[in-house]
Amino acid sequence: MSTPEVAVAVEVLAQPAGAGQVINNAQVFVGGVVLGIAGLFYSIAGLRLMFGGGDPAQVGQAKDAIRNISIGLLIALAFNVVVEIVQFIAGTG
If we measure between CA atoms, which residue out of 33, 41, 24 comes closest to residue 80? Predict the structure, then answer.
């Protein structure tokens, strides 16, 4: 007894992405994650600032956190700009 051959039609839904598209997708994903985490930490720092009760240590820690988050976002933005420049030079963007 032999098994019948089954022909399966495969429909291609998307063409393989080039290097530029892969880099763009990674930038969008990482940017979303970074902004989400930064928003969460901004919220926590804001709550610490509001509910610090005037305690100079709490207020100072909250302000330091806000400054550090802002610096981190600037670094992430600078990284994004560097990637765009490299893509432009390489011709993949």
Answer: 24
